[in-house]
Amino acid sequence: MNEIVGHYVDYEMTSPLQMARHSAQIKPMGVDLARRGLLLLTTCLRVEVYGEKFDVESTDIEVFRGFPHKVVEGSNAVAQRLAEISSGAKSQILGEPYIQEQLSKAVGLLDPDLRICRISRLAIDVSCGSRERQRFTAPFNYDRIVCDMIAEQLGGSVVPDRLYVIGAGMLGRELVSTGPGKMFRSTVVVTRNPKNLRKRLGSRLKIGVDMMRPGEIGCIPEPHSAVVIATADVNPEYQAVLQDALLRLAPLIVIDLSSIPVLQAAAVARLNYVTMYDQQFLQRIAENNKYLMSKLPQLQSDIQTRLLAGGIP
């Protein structure tokens, strides 16, 4: 039986912004690598490849492109790492829930009979139970951080107007339905194709929202509105449209959750523009991680015990 290994580079081995840019370049390779029997996990914080040893080693040049990377050897170690990733134990925001869906989507590209696919599915299943038993859930998740930052700006003396959410992926939907969307008079999802988005979302949004195209924003200034950018799907043309629209809107705050900031800070200097790399965001991440750090050893031990009990393929 061929050895199962993983090669990876993540945000702890380089800067988060460098990692995000590299990941964006490698992500389109996922389908092709899956056809070759390899699991490619790309998020804003990591690029990782798993599969049989010879096949994984053959991808080093095209996937890592000069980035130094680490190796995980053996099915037990691979399963442990994937389960810890799925549980949020390897995330920049410890305990964040979105990584599990990202890993599940990557695994879904694989032939279900592949050994790495069976190992990955076991790791995901185990991570769910371990996370719940150890209560390893981020108290300062993205939506909570956004809520706190907006509330801080409002200061209790300003009546909130509208929340604009640019992007309707899993993070955008969560922000609209369970987090800061409830603080505002109304919520607007900004999209280039409103009709297609309504059809795609169906009934998944839990509250009613309006939809606008980017060019429709900012007919008048809205100093009591807030904007959250929750998409990475931005080309130069779209970036220019968004930038002009937000300058016209002049909102209370613009929070950019994109791993690669959408706007050029110098170009929007007169806006209150905050990215994930600014101190006020990083401070809240540190508070979250301080709270969960003590639970990390118990979570890792729980995962290891359950993986061994489950019989790693």
UniProtKB/TrEMBL annotation:
It holds the Pfam family GlutR_N. Coiled coil: none annotated. GO terms for molecular function: glutamyl-tRNA reductase activity; NADP binding. GO terms for biological process: tetrapyrrole biosynthetic process. Residues 36-107 form the Glutamyl-tRNA reductase N-terminal domain. This is Glutamyl-tRNA reductase N-terminal domain-containing protein. It comes from Rhizobium redzepovicii.
